[in-house]
Design brief:
single chain, about 140 residues, mainly alpha, about 75% helix, about 0% strand, disordered N terminus
């Protein structure tokens, strides 16, 4: 029959020696810091992947925008020539230009109002990261 010593409540290190509470806290802290670093790297990789997808989608939006621009130019010319049948072509061009100036002014004002509501920083994420970093520095608090 082999003799098995009962487990003691103290923790054993890798070399079989007793580990102090400070060493255990140090190990836990370094593990948490490593975990946080890995999470940040994962987040960076995910952001890069999503940015690539967003870039491709933005290119498609750009193409659609150019096509829409061409439609607007051709419709503008069509409207100008249609008005040119009932008035001088110069006045028709001026009327269509004024119409586009009004549309541009309205879109500018709406865009400016919406831009004022945009936050330049991801506030909630920054606050969470600050809390995580503080906890990692002082895990017992």
């Amino acid at each position: 029959m082999s003799s098995v010593s009962p487990r003691t409540p103290q923790s054993r290190g890798q070399d079989g020696q007793d580990s102090s509470v400070g060493e255990l806290l140090s190990t836990v802290t370094s593990d948490v810091q490593q975990l946080l670093r890995q999470e940040v790297e994962l987040a960076k990789a995910e952001v890069r992947q999503e940015a690539t997808k967003a870039g491709k989608a933005a290119g498609m939006y750009g193409g659609a925008g150019f096509a829409g621009y061409m439609v607007a130019v051709l419709l503008t010319l069509a409207a100008m020539f249609a008005l040119g049948n009932v008035m001088d072509l110069g006045w028709a061009a001026l009327i269509v230009t004024a119409l586009w100036a009004v549309i541009g002014a309205v879109l500018y004002r709406r865009g400016r109002e919406r831009m004022r509501t945009v936050s330049p920083k991801p506030e909630q994420t920054l606050e969470t990261l600050k809390e995580d970093a503080q906890w990692a520095r002082h895990p017992t608090r």
